[in-house]
Design a protein that fits this description.
Structural class: alpha/beta
Number of helices: 11
CATH architecture of the largest domain: 3-Layer(aba) Sandwich
Oligomer: single chain
Radius of gyration: 20 Å
CATH class of the largest domain: Alpha Beta
Helix content: 25-40%
Strand order of the largest sheet: 3-2-4-5-1-6-11-10-7-8-9
Order of helices and strands: EHHEHHHEHEHEEHEHEHHEEE
Distance between the termini: 15 Å
Largest sheet: 11 strands, mixed
Shape: globular
């Protein structure tokens, strides 16, 4: 199962909304929680409709709109999204209203918009797209599941152009809940650009919305070829991880030595970064090492940010200095592998190649 990435659109804590720019100016945060830099929605959304939409819905519609424009496609043949938390802000509003109003006189708007498939539904409504529409809610595998569905749909000939996205938001209340169970750093100020050197537990919270147009055909404007994806649930050892990665590469006629760049999901949590460090120093010691969570933070669909970054690397044949670990060993970027994990439970591998 393979597909070409024909278009991109992303809203993140970086200045990534412009599809022509590739991290030319990195925004440095000294915070335990990174919020998205939102674009102006005037040209993208009807102001009347936008007032009723939560942040994550507006960010996702904006990202998907840019993706469609970038791919020069008006209506996709299918829409698949992945989210771990859905429209969390609206969910919180509805639950608080239940408590404050003692379960009486509740307005339905927050409840209607709190469901996980709200984003994909709103995108379809904006486009008047009546085609296949599905949302995956698989925790750390949510975005990966959406991508797999997109690849299978294209492989089976049921669609030619599929809009695939991953989105999650961070709210103050959800941050506090996760902070109690040790998700985030305990320090007051966390220099995000120094996250790679962190030796303490916990990471920094993040959010984002990224969309991709997967296509069955290659065009001049394609960013990269998505050649494969593999998920690993609770691997028992590094040996199992290496075997799974090698299995994916072998199925495409590649070895670890053929990988020019590896994008790691290093998040500064000393409890979980050991897996990345092992791969960096063993299986992929000859590859250029990069990482991304210091730019977008940790969230369950952050793999979408990594896929955006990998596709841009291949298209532009550049590696921004802000994401580089050590030296750049690659003269040409032909094959990029993404290795990401959420809480060392849900491990995912993406393989992208030059068109």
């Amino acid at each position: 199962m393979e597909a070409y990435i024909k278009g991109l659109g992303i809203v993140s804590p970086q200045k990534t909304f412009d599809t022509n720019d590739f991290l030319s100016e990195v925004v440095e945060h000294n915070s335990k929680s990174l919020n998205c830099i939102e674009p102006s929605y005037k040209e993208l959304l009807n102001p009347t409709l936008a007032r009723r939409m939560s942040r994550i819905i507006k960010m996702s519609i904006a990202a998907s709109t840019v993706c469609l424009r970038d791919a020069k496609i008006e209506i996709p043949d299918a829409i698949m999204t992945g989210t771990a938390l859905g429209c969390l802000e609206d969910t919180e509003k509805f639950l608080l209203a239940i408590i404050e109003n003692e379960e009486q006189f509740l307005t339905p708007t927050s409840f209607i918009q709190s469901t996980h498939n709200t984003v994909s539904a709103q995108i379809a409504l904006q486009l008047k797209c009546m085609n296949y529409n599905f949302t995956y809610v698989h925790k750390g595998f949510s975005f990966e599941s959406a991508v797999l569905d997109g690849l299978m749909t294209i492989a089976e000939g049921e669609a030619k152009n599929v809009l695939v996205g991953g989105h999650d938001e961070m709210t103050e209340k959800f941050y506090r809940v996760c902070d109690r169970i040790g998700y985030w750093k305990k320090e007051d100020d966390v220099p995000t650009m120094e996250l790679f050197e962190s030796k303490t537990s916990g990471s920094i919270a993040g959010e984002g919305a990224a969309f991709f147009m997967l296509s069955h055909e290659k065009t001049e404007n394609c960013y990269a070829k998505l050649r494969g994806i593999k998920t690993i649930y609770k691997p028992e050892s590094n040996i199992e991880i290496e075997a799974k990665i090698s299995e994916l590469l072998s199925s495409k006629g590649l070895t670890a030595n053929d990988i020019d760049v590896v994008v790691y999901g290093i998040n500064g949590d000393c409890r979980y970064d050991k897996t990345y460090n092992h791969l960096k120093d063993s299986l992929f010691k000859k590859s250029t090492s990069t990482y991304f969570k210091h730019l977008c933070g940790e969230y369950q669909t952050s793999g979408s940010f990594a896929m955006w970054m990998a596709a841009k690397m291949i298209k532009t044949q550049t590696i921004p200095s802000a994401v580089l670990i050590g030296k750049n060993k690659s003269k040409q970027i032909k094959n990029v592998l993404i290795y990401n994990t959420f809480l060392d439970t849900d491990h995912s591998v993406f393989l992208l190649s030059q068109c």
